[in-house]
Amino acid sequence: MTGPRQPQWFHFAPWVFSIDAADALIATTPRDTQPLDVMAWATAYGLTRLDDPRRVNLIGPTSAGLNRDYAMTADLSRPVIVAQLDVTGHPPSPLLIDGIHRLYRAWREHVPRIPAYLLTAEETRRIQDNTLLRPGRTSITPPT
């Protein structure tokens, strides 16, 4: 017997993103999906080097942190979610916040692109929380 579904969160450095809030936002603000380049993102997230003990990923899961069996059952038709982080003085930086298992499966099966929902920087602020930076902040630069 399974209980109620647990809330989904994505943690990255000091930031925490609510996947449930992102799903709700996308449902209330429909948008087209964009193609995500699987090889570029899999490489950036270290998925192409997961089994190389000489490598350390600065972003993405550790070798023990990705359930490969589960990943190979992930639904590739379900879009991943890419947030946009505000970095002071620079254009927003994309960050995959939902779909790492789908990305891994697509890479393993040589799928060139998968669908992605792109959030704006403002939408990203709305689904982000951080006790260190205070809710709604995605920049470590103090406001002026």
* Helical residues, percent: 25-40%
> What fraction strand?
15-25%
Number of strands: 7
Computed structural class:
alpha+beta
Largest sheet: 4 strands, mixed
Rg, rounded, reads 16 Å
CATH top level of the domain at 29-119 is Alpha Beta
Quaternary structure: single chain
N-C termini distance: 52 Å
DSSP summary: helix tally: 5
Strands of the widest sheet, in order across it, are: 3-6-4-5
In words, what does this structure look like?
By secondary structure, this protein is of the alpha+beta class. The chain has helices spanning 19-28, 38-44, 68-71, 100-108, 121-127, and strands spanning 9-12, 15-18, 34-37, 80-85, 93-98, 113-118, 128-129. It has a domain at 29-119: Conserved hypothetical protein from pyrococcus furiosus pfu- 392566-001, ParB domain (Alpha-Beta Complex). The chain is built from 5 helices and 7 strands. The strands form 2 sheets. Strands 3-6-4-5 form a 4-stranded mixed β-sheet, sandwiched between helices.
Topology:
Layout: E1 9-12, E2 15-18, H1 19-28, E3 34-37, H2 38-44, H3 68-71, E4 80-85, E5 93-98, H4 100-108, E6 113-118, H5 121-127, E7 128-129
Parallel strand pairs: 4-6
Antiparallel strand pairs: 1-2, 2-7, 3-6, 4-5
Question: What tags apply to this protein structure?
Answer:
144 residues, alpha+beta, Conserved hypothetical protein from pyrococcus furiosus pfu- 392566-001, ParB domain, 4-stranded mixed sheet, 3-stranded antiparallel sheet, 5 helices, 7 strands, globular, disordered C terminus
Summarize the structure.
The chain has a domain at 29-119: Alpha-Beta Complex (Conserved hypothetical protein from pyrococcus furiosus pfu- 392566-001, ParB domain). The protein is α+β, with helices and mostly antiparallel strands. It is built from five helices and seven strands, in the order ββαβααββαβαβ.
